[in-house]
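Sample intake — DUF7923 domain-containing protein
Collected from: Fusarium oxysporum f. sp. narcissi
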Amino acid sequence: MSAKLAEDFAAFQIAEERRSARLQDLSSQLKDLIGKYNDAVRDLEGEKVARRFSQQDADESRSKYEELQQSMFKDEYYAAGDGGRKASLDLRDGVRSFLQANRPEHANYPILIKAYANELGLSQFLVASGMIKAPRDLVEFTKDFTQAFENTDFVLVGSGKDRADKKIQDGKSVQSRAGAERGTIATAIGIRFDSFDLGVYGRLKGGCKLSEI
């Protein structure tokens, strides 16, 4: 009887040890799963935070981009009947004021203004933004701009070799040489519509670079 009891007890111990081993194994697997779950949750939260900040950055960048676009185009110049003329004279006066404040020795030089813009891109943008009603309004604007005074010109160009930035580079070289010969302040304006950026450049006698205006 005692021998049978001892065998049963030994078998029970073996079974308990196996069950304990299985429980320990399951416990280890559970801890591993919990760890992976917690890692996944942290990663997900991190991605959510990153997406939130990325969205905030994108919204801020979009807002700044829109503000920059609006700052480059003043409604009153396009809405007014003589807006082109006013824009031309204001630009000339702005250059003159800059020279008086920063280059007084050149403040009385004649000012030559050459403006180039992509006709299709600029007209589409102005119509879409409500600044003009139809593309032909841009033609009237540039005509008034050009006729404001004798040393100003606004040219609408196309794409490819005729693009605005190519005209600017060519114009700056010619204007710089002309300025060296005649002592003329030469200013070029370029509007490129792949990125809607506006560049204003100045050249002084001898090709010296004028600070951006």
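Post-analysis note: The beta strands are 111-118, 152-157, 185-192, 197-203, 209-210.
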